[in-house]
Design goal:
The chain has 253 residues and is of the alpha+beta class. The chain contains five helices and 15 strands.
């Protein structure tokens, strides 16, 4: 709602600023979205300035995973908290000015699931799922050399390729909130302080990505931040507006 000039045809009301009476038949300003007792202002005082509240401070990354650890005492929850915390420190140190981070946020429409990090920058919206999995991580074809064009994600020798698609459970609800297909949503599966296997290539260099698999970036903890920091199509005003919209739709978990 916004302040609207109106004629008080039925009853008068006190001005919330000067406390003078706006008489029946006189003009004044009203805004029904304001708290009771603050919805009327006289013509002399004019409409109140609309102040957009600053988003609340984000929780420390890994907070919800640590709460789960206290409840269930499992190594997976503690490793998750550690991975989320470390990823949060990388983002805080590496992002360019003007990019915004939303940390440990609820997935829209899902009371249980959370998103580790959402970054809003000129390059779009980045959905980051942080992992701290044990064992060597590889993204490569099934054999070497191989004519099979498909690539597989393996962790500690186990095929975890199917886990890549699970990030869309986070991406699609966020895209629905954004409601604008021209704004790119980038899903990232980030392995924090992981042990990476060799990259397929002429010189067998160790590869931490980022790689892209079915629209999802697979990366070490730092490799994709330079992609976020690139120059993108969103203006600073658009970034600010989008950040506030997502902040309102995705409260801290």
């Amino acid at each position: 709602m916004a302040w609207t000039k109106t004629t008080f045809a039925r009853n008068g009301a006190p001005c919330s600023s000067c406390e003078g009476m706006v008489q029946k038949g006189a003009e004044g300003w009203t805004d029904a979205s304001q708290p009771k007792g603050k919805r009327v202002r006289c013509l002399a005082c004019g409409p109140a300035e609309t102040v957009i509240p600053a988003p609340p401070a984000d929780p420390v990354a890994g907070s919800s995973a640590l709460r789960q650890d206290k409840r269930y005492r499992g190594d997976n929850n503690l490793k998750g908290a550690q991975g989320e915390y470390l990823m949060g420190t990388y983002l805080a140190a590496g992002l360019v000015s003007g990019a915004h981070i939303l940390t440990d946020r609820k997935v829209p429409g899902d009371s249980e699931a959370n998103i580790d990090h959402v970054v809003v920058a000129s390059t779009g919206v980045w959905i980051i799922d942080s992992k701290k999995w044990a064992g060597e991580i590889r993204y490569r074809s099934s054999g070497f050399p191989s004519t099979d064009p498909r690539k597989y994600l393996t962790v500690d020798g186990k095929d975890r390729t199917s886990d890549i698609a699970k990030i869309y459970r986070l991406v699609i609800p966020v895209a629905q909130v954004i409601g604008n297909n021209s704004i790119t949503v980038h899903p990232v599966l980030s392995f924090v302080e992981a042990t990476w296997g060799i990259k397929e290539g002429l010189h067998f260099k160790r590869g931490k990505g980022p790689y892209e698999h079915e629209g999802v970036l697979i990366s070490g903890g730092h490799g994709f931040i330079k992609l976020i920091n690139a120059t993108g199509p969103l203006t600073p005003d658009a970034v600010e507006s989008l950040w506030r919209k997502l902040d309102a739709a995705m409260p801290p978990r």
